[in-house]
Amino acid sequence: MGPAAAVTAAIAAALGLQHAPSGPAGRALRLPPVPPGPVPGYVLVADRDNNRVLLVSPARRVVWRYDGLRGPDDAFFTPGWRTIVTNEEFDDTITEVSLRRRRPVWRYGHAGVAGSSPGYLNTPDDAYRLRDGSTTVADIRNCRVVRLAPSGAVERVLGGRCTHDPPRGFASPNGDTPLADGGLLVTEIGGWIDRLDARGRLVWSVRSPVPYPSDAQLLPSGRILVASFTTPGRIVELTRRGRIVWSFGTPTGPDLLRKPSLAVRWPNGMIAATDDYGDRVIVIDPARRRIVWQYGHTGVASSAPGYLSKPDGLDLLPAPQLGARGGGASASTASARRGQASFAHSPNSRSVRHASASPASGSTQRKVPLRPKWPKVRAELRVPVQWGALPSRSSSPSPQSFGASRPNPGSTPSSPGNWTLAASASVSGAIRRGSSSSRATSSSRARSPSAPCAGDPASGNPHTASK
Question: Is the dihedral of CA 393, 398, 402, 406 positive or negative?
Answer without folding.
Answer: positive
